[in-house]
Fold each of these.
Amino acid sequence: MTRIAAAKEAGEENDAPQARRRLRGLYAPIPLAFLGLGVYRAWIEITFVGSFVNFPAFSLSTRDLFDFSAVAEMVLFVLLARRIGPLYTKRWPFALCAAAMLASTVLLFASFFAPGLAGSLGVVTSVAGGVGLGLIILIWSELYGCLNPIRVTLYYAASLVVGALIIYLYMGLKMPWLFVMTALLPIVSLASARKGFALLPEGERPQKAWVSISVPWKIILLMGFFAFSYGIVEANAYQGYFGPHSSPGTFAVSGVVLLGVLVKRDKFDFNTLCRIALPLTVVALFLISVLGFTDDYLSGFCVAGGYTAFSILIMVLCSNLCYRYGVSAIWLFGMERSLRLVFMFLGRCMYEYGSVITIGSVRGTTIASGIAILAVVMGTFFLLSQKELSSKWGASFLVGPEGNGEAVRKQELADRCELLAKRFGLTSRETEVLILLAQRKTVGMIERELYIANGTAKAHVRHVYQKFDIHSREELFDLLGVDGLQENVEAKNAG
């Protein structure tokens, strides 16, 4: 009996460390700097989009002006991306962004004290805010374009949660404090971005080299379908206390994705994002546009939740193109985000005009929603039929990268890894490990990059070796032609 009791006691003692290890396994170190993206999102809602503050200077027209000021700036940056990128190496984008967003905030709050000038102030503050918005989107896009998909998903989802929490906190502030704290948000976000770049190893930061690539039309088309559908239901989705970034749907979906990444780690399926976005978007279209539930809690939840999952998915796909192939984040995200705002505007217009048009006995909004549902469903099934994150999503390289041999190597190495992964049947996570191995990263580095246990990282490496029928890192380099690629780079630099 004594032995049994002792064994039982020892077992109980061992259970405690195991439980603690399991709890620690849910934790992933997320640098606070990368959560600054959620800070500027909080600023957007407090000032322009679904705000709980009734600014005299704000109207629907100023919201459209705010969006199109951002669109105009981002289109300009897309055209000049080869000359001005990367942005993080320059001071003027940060200074201009801070000045524009701060001026916009001051003028918005000033409209309380000068309601007679609200119209004029609304125009100026919308243009200034749009300029700041476009810049801060591109700055953060450059930073997230340096991260692998699992880190993008983890940091972005956590940022969405942080943004919602900030808004909840700000709802309880009195006006003077609300003004001061809102004005600080852009500064904090930009400072966080600069810190985020500093945390990255120098070789992983955005490069000056230009990679000429055609438009990844599958991403753009998918984004267009969802953004247009979101625009149709957006006008009636945020009539209550919550806006798009503070909605319970936003908080819940981003929280679920965050928890999913923490729990699943290397087994997290990125297609889950689409499985969340699609049904929620379809339900929202039915509830708001077909059934007319314009002030319903469920409809607002579905709108925000579906759009949140979709936003995370697009962020992952675009960031991965920048991360793997060295594509300019200014060019890619500037094009994607500007077109997204345009499609959302078209969706809002479609709902507005459809609400006063009837074809037979069918409302125009019902027809528009039916078209949107069909487009979203068909687009999702056809465009997301490829499971590999390594896909270029309809893009192709036009010419070789210019001005930097390292960019040549990165592009060629990514292509080589993608080709071998398909040939030997590697899983998506094994493909990620292969790319990191090709970059000469150790098992410890892979463990930290993918937030997986050391044993899991070793298992993935072992599976890659087994599928390739090799036994060492040197054999892998020979198979990938890493040394040959390096020689090509050195020859090009010497020339």
Note: The chain is about 75% helix and 0% strand.
Amino acid sequence: MTKKTTLLQFFHWYYPDGGKLWPEAAERAAQIAQLGITDLWIPPAYKGASGGYSVGYDSYDLFDLGEFDQKGSRATKYGDKEALAHAATALRDNGVRVIYDVVFNHKLGADEKEQVHVYKADANNRNDINDQGFDALAYTRFTFPGRQGTYSKFIWDYKCFGGVDYVEQPDEKGVFKIANDYGDDGWNDQVGDEKGNYDYLMGADVEFRNPAVVEELKYWARWLLETLPCDGFRLDAAKHIPAWFFKEWADHVRDSAQRDLFIVAEYWSHDLAALQQYIDLVEGKVMLFDVALHLKFHQASKQGDGFDMAQMFTDTLTAADPAHSVTLVANHDTQPLQSLEAPVEPWFKPLAYALILLREQGVPCVFYPDLYGASYKDKGSDGQEYQIDMPIIPELEKLIQARQRFANGVQTDYFDDKNCVAFSRSGTAEAPGCVVVLTNGAESGKAVSLGTELAHKNWRDLLGNRQDEVTTDEQGKATFPVNGGSVSVWVLAETL
């Protein structure tokens, strides 16, 4: 039986420095595969502006995978190129696909300044651009002196960028539109409409209207496919990048690979209509994270029994367009003290994971700290330092395994109560099904009809949250209980 796609985000924002991640991925490869993970999403593997300390989103040199002495180190935060190649090969050898995170939106850490002509834009309405421009120095020239033209001789200069947030002579911070051959008519279209136009995010903003830039980013993808085991991409900051580019780029990389690649874009919006519009613009070439569902998990975990569980999938991408939905409980941006902080409380995480791992719709993505734990310190937005502990979710391993073993057959929903909801999977001739019951309120249960073929069968809770056994009647019906604020996954006793 073909394994159901299950993604693991194999890092978090505060993963320790010192080149530990690639060796850990190689070491865990066999265990990850046995668990039922099919795809491993790794962080940006190339050199960031902060060198060996970079999480990877301060994109500097796409071609430096921890091979060249640049930005104060040879290796990246996660290890050197050799360790990356070893990890990718170990994963592939165990049947796990490798998904690379890539930041195309901006570059940071320029090697040289250039004289540019810029126009200041209103930070809160980027379409409001001053008529009067001025000359200044900007960090827009990337020559990659440590690499010296190996793999690519392309030099990035001001013609490759649409804007910056800092200039010198005069020294000024803000949002500045760069005058060049490609951007005189304002910012890129087909981007998010927050702040009027959300083309500009940070650093030196990549100008996709420059054909040389587009060709270089296509070439980089071909190079990566030839260099390392690569099965797909996670595309950062998609709402700041014109949709036409990713449509064109996704077609190109798939044609180059001559096979399908898993491509998911981060379009961070809670607005279902915005996600749907983006999928239309890229002609369905990429999947998107279901941000609306993630927000519901966050709210449900905070509101307790005040949240209406029957509405969990209302206005979500998973309900509207499951073929393009990647579901998640948490990621590096939503974890405590990060930019999109919206944590899901630990008590609710088993419920949330059951809702993404055991249902038919969407491709689930598991977050590293939920599987392996995390502990870190950082300053909050109030300037105070906080100690954050993200505990291992004890039920998670069983839920991932259950996806491969029991998430089979027709799905029937019982989302008919504000607090206690359930769904069943009928199973198939080859593989068993399950009954999943969860509540955000007091101890409860759900009457579920499974049909006469499952009459007089004994069922047990795979998670061990309930110790009792449930037996279906002659019609294959039974009431399946669940503890307060908990989830139970009921499977045929004979399968345990």
Note: The radius of gyration is 24 Å.
Amino acid sequence: MSPNLTLGDTLTPQTLGEGTTWVTIVFLLLMVGIASAFFVFKKFRLSMLWLFKDKGSIVAPIILSLVILIQVILVLHTHPSIGFDPGAIHEGLLPDHSNELKAYFSMYTNNLALLLLQHQIAVFANSTSWLLFDIVNVIFLDVAVLLNILTIALIDRQKVIATIYMHAIWILVFPMILVPYSDVVVMPLVSGLILTYVIAQKSNFKLVWRLFATLGNGFFLTAIYFIKPSAIVPIIAIVAVEFLYLFRNSVGIDVQWQKLKSIMIALLLCVGVVTSYAYVNHQIESQQVIEIAPHRTVPAIHFINMGVSGNGGYNAKDALAMGRQPSQKAMVDYSKKHLIARLKKRGFFGYIKFLISKQNRNSSDGTFAWLIEGNFMTAKPTGAGLTRLFEDFVYPEGKYLSDFRYIAQVVWILLLSMIALGWRSKNKLTQILRLSIVGLFMYLLIFEGGRSRYLIQGLPVFWLMAALVLPDTMAMLRSKLKWLQKDVPTQTMKN
């Protein structure tokens, strides 16, 4: 259970003794008041439906535009330097590189692609400021939102308005735009991966467009692999579900043609992956931005080993030990030894208990581990006016930091609740998204986790899932709240 729902003084290192204020009280009163008025007062209910549904094609884009404007104002007023991995990447953009920085990129070569991307942006803009990359982060996030909306539009246009509202609410409480790292950068790539898959599967699209989308799907997959490899989980879900659907029926007039089209799409996907992989890999191997020693790359088993240590998150002792090992083989041997020892120490039932606890830490925080990382942010609220207001919500020691945590947690719970209550939806795409979520949770249970920041890469999947199952969720709620809706007109009940 997340501590973010605690009212009053939370007494945690992250909030530094700051508790929720009148902001949270007003937020709760508004939620309760609006919900009560909606169910009790017919005129209010009809007015809300008229404004946000009947006029939704106008109101929804306006609200989303206002949220994007707030994002821009936020980064213009607050663009602090960030520590941990984003700080290392930002340091790599500067001309002089320390031996420690060279060692970092030698060990964590997974961040080289992001370094090269930010380097190209810095060269183009002639700047390495945090403000620049925060603005770029806003663009990445909002492109992911727009791609998600387009995906829903291709599937069911009647769900677009609700999708816009939901995305606007969720990104409004998402200050991770201030952290230019792979978590946010990969989000539009995941959204693009799902969008191109949907286009490729649309039977009413011309075959040439479907094949072109498949090729693009391969490009997105390669980009995801180099930016954040763990975010390829959706493609695994897609392959698994498509395989099951392909061989579910072994007879029928169109079976052979369907298999042939699937083979064509699969081959074109491979072409897209191979060509884009070869290009990106060549760019990384021939890069001159920073000097590295490729043979010092940390093996994957290191992250599995850390995944069973402590609370399942980052382990400084293991990380330092990797730097002391003379070779990759020594890194593997060290990780294997400690992994086996830790598993034996926990035992079967102890390990199961550990996984349950780790899953809670992986998924319970609606702020996505804001300020939790080591050396996350050292800035303190010192501004005035609007700047100080934003700082008080997102900075360490901010007056309204706990209010932000509380509100973000409520939004996260609503999102998860919508997905959970929509379990009756069983179409192919929802099954793929559901399997993607399960796959991401399984990955984080095995590898380094212990905090919900790693869920950011999968947020496009969560958002799409919530949008697609919304009718089923609302149907479930209506069936349970019939006693409150006896006076609702028939046309309203159908919506």
Note: Residues 296-357 form one domain.
Amino acid sequence: MVQTFDIVIAGAGVTGCAIARQLARYDLSICVLEATNDIALGASKANGGLVHAGYDPAPGTVKAKVNARGCALYGMWPEELGFLFRRTGSMVLGFSEGDRAHLEVLEANGRANGVPDLEIIAPERIRELEPRASREATCALWCPSTGYVDPFDVAIACAENAAANGVTFMRSAPIRAIDNLVENAPLQAGGAPLSSQPVRFAIHTPRGTVRARILINAAGSGAAEISAMAGGEAFQLVWRQGNIVVLDKEPRALMPLYPVPTPVSKGVIVTGTVHDNTVITATAALRDPGDCDTYASDVEALLAGARKLVPDLDTRRVVRSFAGGRAVIQGLNDFLIAPSSTARGLFHAAGIQSPGVASAPAVAELMESLLREAGVTLVEKPDWQPRRRAPEDFDRSTTEHQNELIESDPAWGRIVCRCETVPEAEIVAAIHRTPGAVSVEGVKSRCRAGMGRCQSGFCQSRVLEILARELDCRPEDVLLEDEGSWIVDGVLKEGR
């Protein structure tokens, strides 16, 4: 069956989900196509969750504009969408006069970009703000507006809110081909609804063909291929791989501490998380597209860089290291957020590298503005619901509320993940939300079962069992993450 939508968004990372949520408030039919089987399985999952303030991008760039605005919007988004956010402030530590000169450049950049309350501070103030920061630091750029989130939470919250407002999500639907059905006819202006516009694209996936009047390219590492298939601009994406290290929980989460950045990276950053872990992020190496291997040399570089910023950091307490890639447009150290000049009806949100998570709310705003400028009439739905009710978090609940939950359903008292105190009922709820978890990692990203110290060593088999039961499938059919990542292969019998 061929389905027709006003807007199709290619990619369900944090950028695509943010755009879907932004546009869901309007009287439009919208579909998000995702190549993998879940939300945020590309670049969005492989980052440290920092909401950068926006002092690093060069003034006048798209990145600078959306970074600062996006950071400001995190004052509203967590309340509306029900995800955790801590605005802790951050410091870029300097250790020499040369570093101080670089901090002055960053401060000037930030002021030009609209970042509030930047200040270069002395050692005494550094120690006051973060007692664990290196005593070798002679100066720092203090930025009160920096914070951090769980990037999965942001993407999933946007997706759930978009779905609640009528957006269709099609997962496991990689785009194989796109037919341009209208040869570059301009979008019709003058107040006509989008539904009266011609259908421009036929988008072919293994799950069927989807037709769209407008196509938004938010496909991350696949954005260049999508553009080429739709008749858009030719550009090349470079895979800038980053390794990340997660340490065990701390009694008090660190504020984000940065070194003086390099031309291609913000450098090795040490930061707390909303769940009180310490994260060391991230290397920046040019590698083959799709390379998500973890390299020992990169991990050692992260640990060494972290010890320079926080000398007392116990880097033996590593619970996980992983890697991902940033889809950087070759020759363009900026985001590409613009209508295509060669394919009418195609809009790009491509080349989203750091600070993608921080920028997502503003990228979504900008995409709405671009649609309006192109002549698309946007009429707000009378029943638009901007708020998403966050799922129950048993571990963070009061004892009184935990008891109420257990009384309502005994499954709330059956703890599956003891590291993170995740009960069976919370896992079941994660599976049945829309769009819900369909894999072990999908459960993990929604309710943290398996995120703790043992990294699912004890709870994975039970999570797999619950998934098989709730999805009405065999245990052998339950995936660790995406296609090909089987956990169980057949039945194990004694003596075999």
Note: The first strand starts at residue 3 and ends at 10.
